[in-house]
Amino acid sequence: MILRIAVPSRLYRTFDYLPPPDCDPATLQPGMRVQVPFGRQQVVGFLVELGADTALDIASLRPALAVLDTEALLPPDVLALIQWAQRYYHHPPGEVFTTALPVLLRQGEPAIAPASTPLWRITAAGRAALADDSLRRAPVQWRMLDYLAQCPEGAEPETLRPVVSHSAATLRTLRDKGWAEQSAALEGATAFAPHPPPALNVAQAEAVAAMIAALGRFQVFLLEGVTGSGKTEVYLQVIEAALAQGRQALVLTPEIGLTPQLLARFRERLPGPLAVSHSGLSDEERLKAWLMAREGRARVVVGTRSAVFAPLQAPGILIIDEEHDPSFKQQDGFRYHARDLAIVRGQQLGIPVVLGSATPALESCHNAQRGRYQLLSLPERVGGGAEPPIHILDVRRQPMREGLSLPLLERIRAHLDRDEQVLLFLNRRGFSPVLLCHECGWISQCRHCDARMTLHLRRQRLICHHCGDQRAVDTACPQCGSVDLRGLGQGTERLETALCQEFPEVGLTRMDRDSTRRRGSLETLLADIHTGGRRLLIGTQMLAKGHHFPDVTLVGIIDADQGLYGIDFRSSERMAQLILQVAGRAGRAEKPGTVIIQTHHPDHPLLRTLVSRGYPAFAAEALAERQAALLPPFAHQALLRAEAVDPERATAFLNAARALAEPLADGLEVLGPAPAPMERRAGRYRAHLLMQATQRQDLHRFLHRWTALLWADRQDRQVRWSLDVDPLELY
Ligand code: ADP
Ligand code: ZN
Ligand code: ZN
User: Fold this and answer.
1) pLDDT reported for residue 131
2) pTM of the predicted model, to two decimals?
């Protein structure tokens, strides 16, 4: 018997081994982990298949060293999904397994839950303290206690870490006051009193009924509804129905959307422990969640991208919230798309898949139009309330103050004067994207990239956002010695400075990756906003997701132009999604709010359509443009990227790859080699070859034959290359 093993390596194949000498081959099953010698190392591999023969000389095969599991680690459906993904993305099998498993399992740790940590719970005295206002002067303790109050089964210390910045100290204080206690996890018999579900409105009820009717068979639903239209409520009710049938539910959300609020909502409505998986957890916790899902102790699994591979004991439904979000696509290594894989998984399992969004990806809109997905719309916000009107503000020839036109400044002032909140969106952090010498024209070029270093005035650093290189801000021009150095263009830090001067008496919050670097700082900022302590909010796309600011009545999009004329054909789609998402953060039924978009291109046809007729009309027009230009989803693409310190080598590799491609390229175009949009990054030159076909089968038939040749070809070790199937970005 021959074991075909996926070994963590960049090689595009499995490796043949003999069973370990002391092992009864009858106990071996695909999906088990096996310790094997590989080169001069020992590594953990995955048994993919049991074979009867080998293409190699059997005498040359080495025996595996040990079998690490007594049963298959992965259920057959996850194994099938992994194999499907490996073929579809033409990616080395070892790396695919590595992506699909928790770190501890890849390292060969046993598949048993680490000893469970005691859980924190609120006490009766704690509930009384919350109710009687004794924490009015201790907002941090209040926040923690309020959070605990929403975790009836108790919360692990790890999951409490992001709630406030010094969670351990805060918890000790609460315990000393008798308001919180720590005890072992209660097994099973917690009295769970779920919050009663609200009565659904007509559109919600139709959506839930359609999904429930599909339980037990494969069907993709596209649930389209603006923020606040009740999508999450639909998920909750269909999950309840799946649980009632003894099945489990898997919910994927973007990293940024997996908020404590969302988890609290799931916990108070759904019985039993929730398995949560995201990058903020420790390795132990990820393993625990993984095991809870596999053994079926958790009936509901909520996680980010890689949770699409979560093992389930009785899968019933797959839900992808914010399905258009680009973070579902992994952008390095194994470049899979979690939404697309979820659909494949649903099909393999014969269960429904729900894609939810206010602004579905054009691919999904297209699939709904073609009848592949069933479209379900939630046309109204729950509790009524119009969607905020969106206005285009033509800033051509307008006097601008630090990127803000005077009409916008006036509007901001009017709203602030009425004690309302204002949210300004600018998707660029730092003070300004470039430092310029006014004397000689020198600019702060990164030494390693074809990019400018961003000026971060607060930290007094120049930072390259592409390679991370940083240095102190120059006090004099390195070229001519002049001290007249100026920041050119606006980032959030600069906007903050300008607005502080303009509205010195108004509390202001900046929300971006710089201001929320410290654990818990994001939550502190959010709390300040919700209590009305800060009324002017500035942020990057971090503001655009997951949070709701009911008191915001004015949303300003500072710069829409970047997105309208980005280099990527998806730029306008992204911009439209961001605009609507930011708009959706604001207002409540009785105070709907207004959105103002500053632009130099007020007549941009897609922008006009979006503003006057909404996202579905925008999507239809944008799809028509894609169709005319034969771009995805009307064509299917794969991108071969190569990079090297020496640009000639990258190009030579791609030219050779192109030569291999040409005889095979039936029904597809091979474009390039062309330099990447940012040719030099982190000191390496990058170029690519783009393959495009109108028929998906043509592309994949080609890729299958071509990648085999590529892997077999003698490789220039100085060149790093990777294949991206269905690329979302050309970088
Ligand atoms: P979305 O996920 O589309 O943003 P949610 O499901 O979060 O929308 O609903 C928005 C708000 O309305 C939530 O506070 C939710 O609890 C509430 N809600 C949703 N559906 C109903 C309903 N049928 N009746 C009353 N309240 C509802
Ligand atoms: Zn100079
Ligand atoms: Zn750089």
Assistant:
1) 82
2) 0.87
